[in-house]
Amino acid sequence: MKRLFILMALCLGVVSCVSAQKDKEDEEKRKYSDFLQLPHGLEGYFDYDEAVEAAQRENKPILIYVTGHACNNCREMEAWVWSDDQVLKMLREDFVICALYVDDKTKLRSGESLGKLNCSLAQKMWNINSHPAYIILSPDGMRVIAGPRGYNSDIEDYIEFLNKGNRIHQSFVEVGFDADSPNVKWEVSVKKESQDIYAIVFDATIREGLHGYPMSDIFSSPIFEIEGAELLGDVVEPLTPVEIGIDEITGEPAYIYRDRAVYIQRVRAKAGSLLNCWVNATICENDTNLCTSNIAEFLLKLP
Predict the structure, then answer these.
(1) SS in 3 state form for the chain?
(2) Any idea what the CATH number is for the domain that residue 188 is in?
(3) What is the value of pTM for the model shown?
(4) Which of 29, 131, 200, 217 would bridge 221 by S-S if both were Cys, CB 3.0 to 4.6 A apart?
């Protein structure tokens, strides 16, 4: 019996060693991990494509961290904000971290440096030209769901930033845009108010030089269709539109949203339901008032 226990212990030791060796090998396979690392023992990636693969595999949002070796503000954020217990827990459990060093001098096979490659990537994909910068992406890397944000040592604010990204990720299943109507960028989130009652928040960022309309404008306000839920009441608009004069058709004061509009629709549906939402927003040019239809479809899963 004693020999059996010893044999079992040896086997468990071998399995443990093999598992540890496999984890070590997986870590070594990550690009640039032989000379780059994250603070506080955090695990992550230093190559965008690898991070996307991992995020899709684990179904986690991606936290893009644009940083640099010579970035003092980056080190301060790591020391003051990332060291917070709640922040560390969220970074470890809820996100795939991708740190992009924009000043790294390591030469790649293409002849350019790793830093130049990362700098170009950050500029082209997310219009980021400074560091530190933080942005949260969907697991496929195709959608920005929070940020970008720069240096800000407010821990509670950073936690809310992470919570927003995680919250939107949990509610997003799929989102598609009309490729010919790029004038408005939507962020959609779901808030549970009580049993079977949810508030769907449609947050629209309107492209510079354009404007949108409140729901009170019957001629050009967005049209919302939500399949799979019972609509409760009218759309609520928490932002105040700007008055621009008198409408020539109605003779009433005309109002617009210049940069951003938020529309909230309360619905009744069962938890876990899949809702198909359509938005058709009329967006017009400030100078010519030439308008285009902007159609977006959202597939949302209720928490």
Answers:
(1) CHHHHHHHHHHHHHHHHHHHHHHHHHHHHCCCCCCCCCHHHCCCECCHHHHHHHHHHHCCCEEEEEECCCCHHHHHHHHHCCCCHHHHHHHHHHCEEEEEECCCCCECCCCCEHHHHHHHHHHHHHCCCCCCEEEEECCCCCCEEEEEECCCCCHHHHHHHHHHHHHHHHHEEEEEECCCCCCEEEEEEEEEEECCEEEEEEEEEECCCEEECCCCCCCCCCEEEEECCEEEEEEECCCCCEEEEECCCCCCEEEEECCEEEEEEEEECCCCCEEEEEEEEEEEECCCCCEEEEEEEEEEECC
(2) 2.60.40.1250
(3) 0.55
(4) 217
